[in-house]
């Protein structure tokens, strides 16, 4: 079984469901992340409810290609594992490339296939429009474009758990930038309340 994430139209900017874009929902006292390379405010990418938790992903788009935003530990992206119980819309910084051009709802759908490539084939049946709607997978095993880059948890040093992979977006005009046709990968360590993000192309 593979759980696909399917583009499901526009969402409200503060929607509590699975979405890309819009405004991040954050705990009190949250500081919007800034890029270690260029210092700019990062772009909010993904709101991913995960049981009682929410994973929130940001990456730097202020100087595309210059900030090593593909790297899980380079400081050009940032992922969080929040307790989902008490989150509110963040105050968006006035400067920087902070928001995607569209807010997209994603729904999940279970497909009887053993991995992501097989599920993508089965679900879309080779139809381009359907293939475009598939925005990644929830759980399962990562379909790496390059080699396995499972990050180690900065807290405990153990390999982090894979939770999702994400395409750049449904609409080229408003999609995220993972190097052009890349895939983003999201990991967590529940014990350490940590999350990590990286992308490959
Ligand atoms: Zn940067
Ligand atoms: Zn850990």
List each distinct ligand once.
Answer: zinc ion
Helix count from the secondary structure assignment: 2
First-residue to last-residue Cα separation: 25 Å
Residues in β-strands, percent: 35-45%
Helix content: under 10%
Largest sheet report: 10 strands, antiparallel
C-alpha Rg, in Å? 16 Å
> Would you report the number of β strands?
12
Structural class: mainly beta
Molecular shape? globular
Domains, number? 1
| Mean pLDDT across residues | 96
* SSE succession: EEEEEEEEHHEEEE
Q: Within the largest sheet, what's the order of strands?
A: 6-5-4-2-8-1-9-10-11-12
Q: TL;DR of this structure?
A:
This protein has 201 residues and is mainly β. Helix content is 7%, strand content 35%. The mean pLDDT is 96.
